[in-house]
Design goal:
Blueprint (H helix, E strand, L loop, with lengths): L2 H34 L10 H13 L2 H33 L1 H14 L8 H8 L3 H25 L3 H9 L4 H37 L6 H10 L3 H41 L1
Helix pairs in contact: 2-10, 3-4, 3-6, 3-8, 3-9, 5-6, 6-8, 8-9, 8-10, 9-10
Length: about 270
Amino acid sequence: MTRAHAWPALARQALRGIGRCAVPLAVILAWQWMGSTERLPHYLSWPGAIWAAARELSADGELWMHVRATLLRLVCGFAIGAMVGVLTGMAAGMSRTARNFLDPLVAVVNPVPKIAFLPVVLLVFGLTHATQIAIVALSVSFPVFLGAQQAVAQVDRHLIWVARNFETPVLTLWSRVVFPAALPGIFAGLRVGLALSFVVLFAAELIGAKTGLSRLIVEGEEWVRYDIMLTGILGYAVLGFLADRLLLRIRHRVLRGSLIGTQEART
């Protein structure tokens, strides 16, 4: 691509970026203006006050302590739930025996709000990080299971039939044919599970956790420091946004590779 042709593409990308930022930026500016002119209720701190509170908490390390605790629980719980969901979902999609065993269990447990299992998990793990991690893993595993099962069920059976005719080992069949073809559906389930993990983790941290962004929100409410409370809420929003963008970036890179792998399997 020549430089003359590159400029219009760069201009379009810049305009798209500006368009995506326009609404959030307008909301922040309006929020800041209403706060600075004392047009907001006292409990709705404005961005300048929230930024000052975040800097205050960052200076003594308290904010990063809460962020690290939340990230630890989120990453561990999501990884465990995703692994369990993908493996069991693929098994249910490929094996009628596994499907007959797992489908009734999922049909019974999936409609139950996963936070309802918190008392049981507390009895098992006590007031530890493991409690929040287990609840997150439980909430993530079900949408990932359903996404993986449906994705595997929709894999082109001709590919599987050809691979089996060539006596392809089961592990190779799964890793080179089934798994790459099912990746779009698996990532759809992972994205749903990621969103649910934040919802469940927020509730789980409220009960018994001494650290975490939920704890920071509660402390802000108890101290009547609404700027601190909103710092915790916005912290969740920022982490959720960054995690979703990261997952989409990984999805884009992995699917490009899986497309090549699937095309090789067809030849």
